[in-house]
Amino acid sequence: MPHSHPLPLWAGRTIALVGILLVALNLRTAVSAISPITREIAVDIPLDNVALGLLGMIPPMAFAISAIFSAPIARRLGLERFLILAIGFMIVGHLLRAAAGGYAILLVGSALALVGMGIGNVLLPPLVKRYFPDRIGMVTALYATLASASAAIPALVAVPVAHATDWRLSLGMWSILAFASLVPWITLLVQRSREKRDTSANDTAELPQALPLRGRPIWQSSVAWTVAIVFAISSFNVYGVLTWLPDILAQTTDTTAAESGALLALYAAMGLPAALFIPVLAARLKNVSPLVQLGVVFFIVGDLGLLLAPGFATTLWVVCIGLGALLFPVCLVLINLRSRTMRGSVALSGFVQGVGYTIASLGPLLVGVLRETTGGWVAVFIMLIASAVIASVGGILLRKPVYVEDQLARR
Questions:
Q1: How far apart, in whole angstroms, are the C-alpha atoms of residue 121 and residue 70?
Q2: What pTM was estimated for this model as a whole?
Q3: Contact assessment for residue 278 and residue 328, using Cβ atoms and an 8 Å cutoff
Q4: Per-residue pLDDT tens for 258-281?
């Protein structure tokens, strides 16, 4: 729970804040850096629709697998040590992708980088709760904004860098940013060592045995399931569109490859304003349902626009779909707002993202399958709109503040 007397944001927590923000800036670089330059990659590594669909499935799958196993591993290693390991995965993954001589290495490198990012996804909310329990809304807003930027920036610069140099540099350069995020966390652990603190013991005492209070599994909490479903719908839509938007635009509008890349970057950038303001607003509201419904409306309006009038106001429809992803920062805040302790936060974060990204991993595949079987995009948009309606129901169920620990204790 937030402290009644908030400390200054930087008071004694500078390194932790810098570390959280730098990691956030790495959380999506491997996701959006590849789709704008698939044509360039295909010159050296053949990529058919199945290969592209599989690459599109890896991000949510890697995030889901990471979420499922992160809580018990974090309990043993400690949050900070596990995060350092995750950053190492990112660095190696980026470099493998850049050096890939065939599709298998490209796939392995992508998976490794994205597993590291998935671990970061799970660990950042409890790290915010640990270091900034008095500033949950503000710090979540900051890191969610940078996470959104980490999706938008690679999509924007991937093509220019690939054309100026080659696609390998366009993919591999993000390892430098990942390496930079190691510095504050290593520094923090060195400082703890000098102060003769047993970091591992402190972490273990605060982390769950992969379960919340009283040994009851978190899947028995309706709050956990509701947050997970809203998170899943948001991610399902985001990854489905992120993977296929250039193809949708190429086949339904007159946009060029460069224009499609710019619109993809614009789509990803729409998470920036949502991430900047939504967490602070959600932390102050007792009823977050209106925020969820607002995200649902954006999704539906954008999907209907691309379905019924793709060549008219194309930019507006892309912006609307991008703004629908405001559901993502809402769920990030809810991980901490619907848990009383850091034990609950870690467990809820792992569960929400594990369930959410598992469902989301089907997004790129289902979009591709529906496109192939129907020969158009109508069925795709009907599916996306129907999923948004499900999120609307979840928003209604989240209107009252209920904590997972309280639910599990009552059962």
A1: 10
A2: 0.80
A3: no
A4: 788 788 878 877 878 888 888 888
| Helix%, strand%, coil% for the chain, nearest 5 | 80, 0, 20
**Helix ranges restricted to H, 100-221:** 103-131, 136-164, 167-172, 174-194, 199-206
Task: Find the angle CA(238)-CA(243)-CA(248) to the nearest 5 degrees.
Answer: 100
Q: Which amino acid is at 396?
A: I
Check if the beta carbon of residue 322 is closer than 8 Å to that of residue 269.
yes
What span, in angstroms and rounded, lies between the C-alpha atoms of 222 and 192?
A: 38
**Whether 400 contacts 319, CB under 8 Å:** no
User: What DSSP character marks residue 35?
Assistant: G
Q: What is the CA radius of gyration of the chain?
A: 20
Asked if 370 and 247 count as a contact pair (C-beta separation under 8 A), the reply is no
Domains of the chain as residue ranges with CATH? 14-410 (1.20.1250.20)
CB 230 within 8 A of CB 292: yes
Per-residue pLDDT tens over the stretch 323-366: 998 998 899 999 988 988 888 888 899 999 899 988 888 888 88
